[in-house]
Design brief:
By secondary structure, the protein is α+β, with helices and mostly antiparallel strands. It has helices spanning 23-30, 41-72, 95-104, 148-178, and strands at 2-5, 18-20, 36-38, 76-81, 88-93, 114-115, 120-122, 124-131, 137-146. The protein has two domains: 2-64, Ribosomal protein L9, N-terminal domain (Ribosomal Protein L9, domain 1), CATH 3.40.5; 73-146, Ribosomal protein L9, C-terminal domain (Ribosomal Protein L9, domain 2, Roll), CATH 3.10.430.
Length: 179
């Protein structure tokens, strides 16, 4: 069956394309979701108008995405998480966390546009890609830090251990000097 796509469909085509698909795929998926319409003679006449409108809409969406790239360029996000001694996080920083943090800064970006292969599970600074449009991708800096309380506890434990080692080594040194 030939259909005319009303929206971009992954691995199939873009708006306004006439594609040939299996009957079941068109009847059960594309048509009920209003992603496509049957390619009849009347609909093929409408296709030119759709292509022109889609081209205008696509141009404005791309321009908006490019403006957003410029606004996102200086943005740096910082997350504080509990972590272990080796710098591995007990939790992780996900695309949903990044989207929520961007929303607090005034950027409404869908979490599915944030390109994370897997969640950030270690401390450090990362560059995260956000695919805003087909050829438009923004990059933001995400910094993952350890909680302040843990660092001070770890430092205090290290200092206490050093102090006890120093106390243990002093009596041995005094005893050997007395002999």
């Amino acid at each position: 069956m030939e259909v005319i796509l009303k929206e971009d469909v992954a691995n199939l085509g873009h708006r306004g394309d006439v594609v040939k698909v299996p009957d079941g795929y068109s009847r059960n998926f594309l048509l009920p979701r209003k992603l496509a319409m049957q390619a009849t003679a009347a609909n093929k006449a409408v296709i030119e108008q759709m292509k022109n409108a889609a081209a205008r809409r696509s141009a404005t969406e791309k321009a908006q995405a490019e403006e957003l790239v410029v606004k996102l360029a200086p943005v740096a996000l910082s997350f504080t998480r509990k972590s272990g001694e080796a710098g591995h996080l007990f939790g992780s920083v996900t695309s949903a966390d990044i989207a929520a943090e961007l929303a607090t800064k005034g950027f409404e970006i869908d979490r599915r546009k944030i390109q994370l292969d897997e969640s950030l599970k270690s401390m450090g600074e990362f560059s995260v890609a956000i695919k805003l449009y087909r050829e438009v991708t923004a990059h933001i800096k995400v910094q993952v830090l350890a909680e302040a309380g843990e660092e001070t506890v770890a430092e205090a434990a290290a200092e206490a251990q050093a102090a006890t080692e120093a106390q243990l080594s002093e009596p041995v040194a005094e005893a050997s000097a007395a002999e």
